Amino acid sequence: MWLRPEEVLLKNALKLWVTEKSNDYFVLQRRRGYGEDSGGLTGASLEEISQHWDWLQQNIIRTLSVFDSGEDITSFVQGKIRGLIAEEGKSAGDEEDPERFREAVLRFERLFGLPQREKLVTYFSCSYWRGRVPNQGWIYLSTNFLCFYSYMLGNEVKLMYPWDEVSRLERTSSVLLAESIRVCVRGEDHYFSMLLRLQQTYLIMQQLAEYAIVRFFDKETFNAEHPLANPLHIMQKALEIHARNQSFRSFFRLPQEENLCEVHESFLWVPFSHVNTLGKICVSENYLCFASQDGSQCHLIIPLWEVFSVELPDRGSRALTVCLRGKRALRFSEVRDFERLAATIRRKCGTAGSPQHYISNPDEEGVMVGQSQAVSTEALMNVFHPHDAENLDPKMLKERMKEQSWQIHFAEYGRGSGMFCTKKTRDLIVRGVPETLRGELWMLFSGAVHDMTSHPGYYGRLLEECMGSSSLACDEIERDLHRSLPEHPAFQSDTGISALRRVLTAYAHRNPKIGYCQAMNILTSVLLLYAKEEEAFWLLVAVCERMLPDYFNRRIIGALVDQAVFEELIREHLTQLTEHMTDLSFFSSVSLSWFLTLFISVLPIESAVNVVDCFFYDGIKAILQLGLAVLDYNMDNLLCCHDDAEAVTVLNRFFDSVTNKDSPLPATVQQASATANDKSIQKVDISDLIKESYEKYGNIRTEEVENMRKRNKLYVIQTLEDTTKQNVLRVVAQDVKFSAAQLDELYMLFKRQHFVSCYWSVCSPALQNHDPSLPYLDQYQLDQSQFSSLFNLLQPWTTHTHVRSLARSAFRLLDANGDGLVNFKEFICGLDILYNRSFTEKLKFLFKLHIQPDSAEDGVIRKCPERGRAKVDLQEYLKQWQEDLQRREENIKDLPRINQVQFIGLTKTLYGVFHGTEEEESLYRAVARVTSLLLRMEEVGRKLQESSLQKTPQTTPTSTPQPETSPTLPTSPENETLAEGKGDQPESPASPQETAPSHSDITPTSTSRPSTPTSSPTGTSSPVLDTPTDTPSSPSAVRDGDWSFSFEQILASLLNEPSVVRFFERAVDTDSLIAHACKNQLKVAHFK
């Protein structure tokens, strides 16, 4: 059993402890009077303690002799033992009894009622805190849900929250709790604490929440080939592997195809400092990487195709030598499994294909083979501002000194992919990169060189596929081409504009999910100044897909996340400014352009490129540091500002004062600010500003920034979702009678119904029904299957029969535009009729459900795939909006007549609605009376029509009279309903006198109707049955012998039945129905 090591003071230790064994580094002691015949405080036996002591002597002491200082020895020992503790805990978890896990799965399914498709990832013992009271229980982490259950002393606590509703997830500490995990769901905080595995639990929760967010909300960056794409196959081990691969690729800036295969701890002989550096060797499919762990910040990347041999010179020191092309060699020592590592490298050297082209010498002319497109093979700066070797200008002399410093660095640390990156490398970056080396170093530090090397000819093939094509992205690119650095000569000519067009179009074709977004043109134009065209393309890929993820999409989620991180850093490092400006959202809005364009849009180009140098070396950390330095530099002026406008003026004036005194660019290329000649304004050199940012804020670690990014991404996504919800509810609330709280719950039900359909599917088609680029109302839409499930949960009547047909008809009716999808407004307006409207409105809704023609394409989605990216015609939108405002309320006289089959369906629906109610018998009788009355009225109308036709003189040949037909409605409409419905329903209470006649002459069409004086729906006394059948409201084609009714006839008949009117006018318990739907929504999905 390993415990965290602590240093001991021998002087004090001798008073209470007796030394059993000792050496130069470790002491083995026992307590005076204890442990002579038994184990120590840890409960371990003397034999086990002796084994551990021998292991320390054999495996650690020999290694410690390499170190020169006591601090390094302490740091190494502590790190080594921590690793052993973690490895011991991991192996214990791996060896957990599978039977116990199966029991946990069954318990999880039983407690929370989730389907078997819901994958339980892991579970832990923990406490859930309600105020100051802990509830000890178990936390269950599954693919889509965070669940907790506790039952103690008769008190049951059961929680179940979907990951897609989590807005905050972080580790916190308080006076009461030393450390806990805070989970915020829909504005409510929940705290979980545990004695063991808190960090492991937190990391798994973080990964599951991030997975849900990316899969459901941020689909532009979610790849169908994602390692965790299948929610049914997610396991704890898969999550750990995925996180490890992501961290590995991010640190070394490697292509997305690379995965970490092996990790070995070792020492690397560093020739320039003549010391052994402790670190880890990381091996992937095509790269051998090393990163130090002793604070030297040394790392390097070796492509395996550069390795031609591996030697084992000294087995005693467990060393191996990796020989590279170009007469270079790397010596690793103290590798525990050095033979296995050597075998792995040898095997991978044979499988790693040698690329067809790679950057080995920046002076070589780039030739792009196999391309039909004319591609620029020179950086635009070399074309429009060639390097003049004979220029003796002081700025050029200083530029040559920079070049010489880098040449010395290359000679000492290497050049290209195998270069050692150390603190000295960063110091040279901070001072500024020479113009001639900028493109090469950008490619190297960004990792774009690895992408280009592993994809030879890719850019040329993209150009052949996309050039000449037409798309929305191409139109947007053409619009912004001449807005990209318009003052630079390179983009005042066709050479620069054409190169910019090709790079942007090729990337839009490569990544259609992003396509083209504003700010990409500004960044790409700067890349083209210093890199060749193909290199600029791969630099753009590195920025958009790795270094600034989620920045260049329609919601700029990545930029919003980094703004939240920036706010957090302001609170931590600039407390004086935080106290003065309690609302830091101002800095978020001001700094948006800083992050999107890497300060290019606010600084002159000659200064901005120095910022880009630091960005490609240190990533977003460099931009955050510089932002803090800018605010710190202007602290006094910002504290004097009274409003946001003054603060903006202060920052703009500061950026105008920033210069680059060492820039060798001519005046025609430099962007002179409006205050360039104003001597009263103090100038700030960009090199000094960047140096100050590293001195003051360089202690911000990249790992810390990445953790802050993950933590804030949940909050940013949920904030955007809340904004969408608020806008939707604001629009919908004007047309319905639900309260604000009820609308909020109904919206969450509607939104959750969309996700429930996607929880257990690899690539659910329903995922495409959520499009954040659409207007707020159309961002979430349900197809017919989703709609039917939710409609059946919320409809206010217990219709046990014809449930599917009723939901299907409601979907067709509410799908106003016929695209096979229903948005929230359409859904809630239909629900509002059933919950809150009058008897007439409810009956009209049921009437319209049954007069719709059946379609073979019911439920087929006809939404255009490019709908979300199509151009919005504002004139057409305003015209449609005006028409909606002017649209008069639908008149019941405009409704078409209902034919025989449709009326039978309406009757069946009414019987189903009434089934199971307290007044079921009287309601059945009322429907039977209304049916009989309507049929008798139709019979009388036909006879009157026949008699009038006989008295009317014929001017045209008459047709052969039709034989009499009997009505096809059954003798008892209710009996037919019961026959087709459930067999256990009671027989109809209608008496024979109330049933329809079985023998009568019914005319299918009539030109006149008897005027029955009843109250019309409009409140005036008027004939109800006065609509001629040849009016436009009649069916276009009615079969001979069929009969039909108008809505007015049915309404007038039912108004005479108080029990029916009372049933439909009865208040609906909306809150109870919503609570029932919330409770059973997942159960319905379970049993579907």
Automatic annotation (TrEMBL):
<dbReference type="InterPro" id="IPR011993">
    <property type="entry name" value="PH-like_dom_sf"/>
</dbReference>
<dbReference type="GO" id="GO:0005829">
    <property type="term" value="C:cytosol"/>
</dbReference>
<dbReference type="InterPro" id="IPR036012">
    <property type="entry name" value="TBC1D8B_PH-GRAM1"/>
</dbReference>
<dbReference type="InterPro" id="IPR000195">
    <property type="entry name" value="Rab-GAP-TBC_dom"/>
</dbReference>
<protein>
    <recommendedName>
        <fullName>TBC1 domain family member 8B</fullName>
    </recommendedName>
</protein>
<dbReference type="GO" id="GO:0005509">
    <property type="term" value="F:calcium ion binding"/>
</dbReference>
<keyword id="KW-0677">Repeat</keyword>
<feature type="domain" description="Rab-GAP TBC">
    <location>
        <begin position="432"/>
        <end position="619"/>
    </location>
</feature>
<keyword id="KW-0963">Cytoplasm</keyword>
<feature type="compositionally biased region" description="Low complexity">
    <location>
        <begin position="1003"/>
        <end position="1023"/>
    </location>
</feature>
<dbReference type="InterPro" id="IPR004182">
    <property type="entry name" value="GRAM"/>
</dbReference>
<dbReference type="InterPro" id="IPR036015">
    <property type="entry name" value="TBC1D8B_PH-GRAM2"/>
</dbReference>
<feature type="domain" description="EF-hand">
    <location>
        <begin position="802"/>
        <end position="837"/>
    </location>
</feature>
<dbReference type="InterPro" id="IPR018247">
    <property type="entry name" value="EF_Hand_1_Ca_BS"/>
</dbReference>
<dbReference type="GO" id="GO:0003094">
    <property type="term" value="P:glomerular filtration"/>
</dbReference>
<keyword id="KW-0343">GTPase activation</keyword>
<dbReference type="InterPro" id="IPR035969">
    <property type="entry name" value="Rab-GAP_TBC_sf"/>
</dbReference>
<dbReference type="InterPro" id="IPR011992">
    <property type="entry name" value="EF-hand-dom_pair"/>
</dbReference>
<dbReference type="Pfam" id="PF02893">
    <property type="entry name" value="GRAM"/>
</dbReference>
<dbReference type="InterPro" id="IPR002048">
    <property type="entry name" value="EF_hand_dom"/>
</dbReference>
<keyword id="KW-0479">Metal-binding</keyword>
<dbReference type="Pfam" id="PF00566">
    <property type="entry name" value="RabGAP-TBC"/>
</dbReference>
<keyword id="KW-0106">Calcium</keyword>
<feature type="compositionally biased region" description="Low complexity">
    <location>
        <begin position="947"/>
        <end position="978"/>
    </location>
</feature>
<dbReference type="GO" id="GO:0005096">
    <property type="term" value="F:GTPase activator activity"/>
</dbReference>
<feature type="compositionally biased region" description="Polar residues">
    <location>
        <begin position="988"/>
        <end position="1002"/>
    </location>
</feature>
<feature type="region of interest" description="Disordered">
    <location>
        <begin position="943"/>
        <end position="1040"/>
    </location>
</feature>
